[in-house]
Design goal:
It is built from five helices and no strands. It is mainly alpha-helical and 171 residues long. Helix 3 packs antiparallel against helix 4.
Length: 171
C-alpha cells in the first residue's frame, strides 16, 4: 500500500508539472505553487519507495489533504488570493484526476498509520501485486484525463484560456 501511494503521488506530480507553466503565465505565484507541489509529490514518492516511514506517511497525508482542500475551495467559493479572487473555477478532467489520486494517497497513508504495523518489506509478493495495481490505476486515471482533453477545462460561452485567469490548483 505504501508503494501504491508512492506511485499515485508520482502520477499527481506529473499532472501538476504539466499545468505549472500555464498557471505561471496566468499568475506567477500559482505557477510556482504548482511547480513546488509537483516537486514535493515526486520527492515524497521517491522517499516512500526507498525509505518509507510513519513520519513520511503522516506528511504525505497532511500535504495531499491540504492540496485537496485548496482544490475544493477553488472549485466552490474560489481562492482568496490571485487575480480571480473568490471566483469559483469549473472542474476539469486533470484536476479531478489529481484530486482523486491525492484523496487515495491520504486514504492509503491513514490506513497504514492506523494499522500500526511496520511497512511491508520491499520485494514481497503482496507488495509486487499492490505495485502493479497502483501503477495500472495511476496510468488509467491519468490516461483517461488526458484522453478527454485533460489540459483544457470548460469555459463560459465565448471565453477562451486567454480571456480569464485561473484561481486555483489542478487546472
Amino acid at each position: 500500500t505504501a508503494v501504491a501511494a508512492a506511485l499515485m503521488s508520482a502520477a499527481a506530480a506529473v499532472i501538476h508539472a504539466a499545468v505549472a507553466g500555464l498557471h505561471f503565465r496566468e499568475y506567477a505565484p500559482f505557477g510556482l505553487l504548482f511547480g513546488a507541489t509537483a516537486l514535493a509529490q515526486a520527492a515524497w514518492a521517491a522517499l516512500m519507495l526507498t525509505v518509507p516511514s510513519r513520519r513520511l506517511l503522516a506528511a504525505g497525508a497532511a500535504g495531499n489533504g491540504a492540496i485537496v482542500c485548496a482544490w475544493a475551495l477553488s472549485r466552490t467559493l474560489g481562492l482568496p488570493v490571485g487575480p480571480g479572487r473568490w471566483t469559483a473555477e469549473p472542474a476539469a478532467a486533470l484536476d479531478v484526476a489529481a484530486s482523486t489520486l491525492e484523496l487515495a494517497i491520504v486514504a492509503a497513508a491513514v490506513a497504514l498509520l492506523a494499522a500500526g504495523r511496520p511497512l511491508a518489506p520491499r520485494g514481497s509478493r503482496e507488495l509486487r501485486y499492490l505495485t502493479a495495481l497502483a501503477t495500472a490505476a495511476a496510468v488509467a486515471i491519468t490516461g483517461a484525463a488526458l484522453a478527454h482533453g485533460g489540459a483544457a477545462h470548460p469555459h463560459p460561452p465565448g471565453q477562451t484560456d486567454h480571456d480569464h485567469v485561473h484561481s486555483g490548483p489542478h487546472d
